[in-house]
Amino acid sequence: MQNYDAEWKDLAPRDVVARSIYHEMLTHGVTNMYLDLRSTIPEARIREHFPNIYQKCLAYGIDLTRDLVPVVPGAHYSCGGIWVDEWGLSTIDRLYAIGEVACTGLHGANRLASTSLLEGLVWGKRTAQHIVQQHPDRSAPDPALIPPWRYIGDEVPDPALIGQDMSSIKNMMWNYVGLVRTTDRLNRALRELRNLESEIERFYRSSKLTDGLIGLRNAARTAVIVTMAAWENKQSMGCHYRE
Ligand SMILES: Cc1cc2nc3c(=O)[nH]c(=O)nc-3n(C[C@H](O)[C@H](O)[C@H](O)COP(=O)(O)OP(=O)(O)OC[C@H]3O[C@@H](n4cnc5c(N)ncnc54)[C@H](O)[C@@H]3O)c2cc1C
Predict the structure, then answer these.
(1) What is the pLDDT of residues 136-170, one digit of tens each?
(2) Could you tell me the fold of the domain covering 9-71?
(3) Using CB atoms within 10 A as the burial measure, which of 86, 93, 105, 116 is most buried?
(4) CA–CA separation, 113 and 117 (whole Å)
């Protein structure tokens, strides 16, 4: 890390550390970097401070007190989402969103450690208060009044196809809309994701619905929206980085 952030080194913000690891992996053509705890933290302290991850790594044959630990950057939060106000209310009347799916404005362009769970807690409470205040007399709809789902098609979704499409979306998002975004990568992702999305939409219209198919359709839509937003945003800030 001294080559990337001489002052903060591995304590630099998470997006900086992640991009540095990614850059080293690309430069050296390797699939991971190594984390070295053994030469900086005494053995007893590693066991005492990191008991869970110590046991977890042991199960994979890695002893944190003796071995180098293979690491790669991984997505563990998202920034942005459904735009809501300070009460969790979206721009659609009576539709609320809270937690990871919501964009409350609290995090800005990056998340600081441990603010996500606090946000969920605070907005969960505020949203509940708002609903009770704004809609005191509203009761849940009578399920008997909700018409049954009408299936349009009768093709049976093939789980292998759903699995393959889902992993294509994940790979595309990781490689083209990931840590370092370029116009070429984003263009390529948009082309391929739109093709995939229209293919999935056609399939969705002609198939019996399953949880996997609904999830795949939502994933394709979300991927297109995220990629379009990344494409339009030319300014690098926080976890959105354009080269
Ligand atoms: C590895 C990792 C480490 C993290 N570390 C921290 C940390 O240290 N501190 C911190 O503050 N935050 C941390 N976060 C972020 C934090 O955990 C999340 O932001 C938070 O858990 C989001 O809560 P949520 O309730 O909004 O969403 P989730 O916890 O994702 O809950 C969504 C729920 O909806 C369910 N669901 C999905 N689809 C459907 C469907 N169609 N029908 C019914 N149910 C559905 C899911 O099964 C899930 O239970 C971490 C995240 C990760 C991945």
Answers:
(1) 887 788 899 999 888 778 888 889 999 999 999 99
(2) Flavocytochrome C3; Chain A, domain 1 (3.90.700)
(3) 116
(4) 10
